[in-house]
Amino acid sequence: MKKIIFTGILAISVSCTGPSEKEEDLSAKVDSLTRETEELKRANDTLSEHLFQKTYLTRQYSPYFDTIPDPEEHLLEKLKEQDNLIPKDPVLGGTMRFTEVRFVDDELFVAEYEDGHIMGKAVYTYTVNNSGEIIFEMVGTIM
User: For 120-126, which contacts have Cβ atoms below 8 Å and span 24 or more sequence positions?
Assistant: First the structure.
């Protein structure tokens, strides 16, 4: 009988001890990472919403475009010459092509592309070299 009572008291005392310091540290780290992930998701959703609604238009152009009447159309024509910058492959015999360009600021723009079956958007940066040639670089895609 004493063994049963001793075992019961031992089990109760062991179960009453709090979490170890290591468990508390890991729990705090998980909570911190969870909060950070939620903040990043909110920021991503906000940016995606702005880009989707095209509310990001600022009409800020680099000085290169000062003498060009329609900078977006000019950029689109130059971009069409480099369809290798489209990050998706065409499907069902289509041909990927750029369809629209919108400036984000004087260094970035969003380009829409499609092949008649699928479409997408990507963010690009551009620079103008000494000979006046525009050099494009994809920054990322927009879901």
Answer: 120/86, 120/87, 120/88, 121/51, 122/85, 122/86, 122/87, 124/79, 124/85, 126/75
Q: What is the pTM of this model?
A: 0.56
8 Å CB contact between 134 and 77:
no
pLDDT digits (tens, 9 = 90+) for 79-105: 989 878 998 888 888 888 999 998 888
Give the tokens for residue 47: 């940016």
Q: What SS3 class is residue 12? A: helix
DSSP state of 55: T
Residue the block writes with tokens 């890991």: 26
How many CB atoms lie under 10 A from the CB of residue 111? 24
Express each pLDDT in 1-25 by its tens digit: 666 765 666 566 655 556 678 888 8
